[in-house]
Design brief:
Length: 225
């Protein structure tokens, strides 16, 4: 009886922990879906003028329409696009009135790295963003070949003589540049998979507990004889 009682307590405790972890992940899923919906609404809102004072926290994803001039000189940030392959984000400085900010014009394939771009006056609609793309494994930029491996806004701004403000274009700025607008698709949301994993483990745990309880209660061959 002690063995059966121990198995029951151990099995119920383990089952409760696994189920609670699954429930917690479902709660996290609901929270994350709310966050993504809020971000999506902010991204797709009506564009406004560029604020005089910009805050990376308050103005992240802010839709903006701005008129000015795309300046010569560009930085190439290495990226990969699904079903297309490797290429570069084209980052340039964009001057308007007495300000110069960074402009992410979009994607070109590797073979178009040195092509001529349309520069000069234009009106652009996009979203302000400060991407968090740098970790301990991000290589340093290859300055000689003009290849960067992340959109490091402060360092990009220093290299191009601009404010540390990045506008990611969602309108086309050149027929040969494909805009890569801000979206929620790159924001991870794996809570449903985690919940399924925990609930699956709980089911396995319950089955194993039931099996061991059955084996403990079943008469042995020696008892039967």
């Amino acid at each position: 009886m002690r063995r059966i009682l121990f198995l029951m307590i151990f099995g119920i405790a383990g089952l409760a922990i696994l189920v609670s972890l699954g429930v917690w992940q479902m709660q996290r899923l609901a929270w994350k879906q709310g966050v993504l919906a809020e971000i999506e609404n902010r991204i797709s809102a009506d564009p406004v003028d560029l604020p005089d004072t910009v805050s990376p926290d308050a103005d992240k994803y802010l839709p903006v329409t701005i008129a000015g001039e795309v300046e010569p000189g560009e930085i190439h940030v290495l990226v990969s696009v699904k079903q297309v392959g490797a290429g570069y984000r084209i980052i340039q400085s964009f001057s308007t009135n007495d300000r110069t900010i960074l402009l992410d014009r979009g994607f070109v394939p590797v073979t178009a790295k040195h092509d001529q771009r349309l520069n000069g006056p234009m009106e652009i609609t996009g979203n302000l963003h400060w991407p968090d793309e740098i970790d301990g494994y991000t290589p340093e930029p290859d300055i000689d070949d003009n290849i960067w491996f992340a959109r490091d806004v402060p360092n990009l701004a220093a290299a191009l003589g601009a404010e540390p403000v990045l506008l990611i274009a969602r309108s086309q700025t050149d027929p040969n540049i494909t805009p890569l607008p801000v979206s929620v698709t790159g924001i991870p949301n794996d809570h449903l998979q985690y919940a399924i994993t925990w609930f699956g483990l709980a089911l396995v745990w319950a089955a194993m507990t039931g099996y061991f309880l059955w084996r403990s209660r079943a008469p042995s061959e020696s008892d039967a004889t």
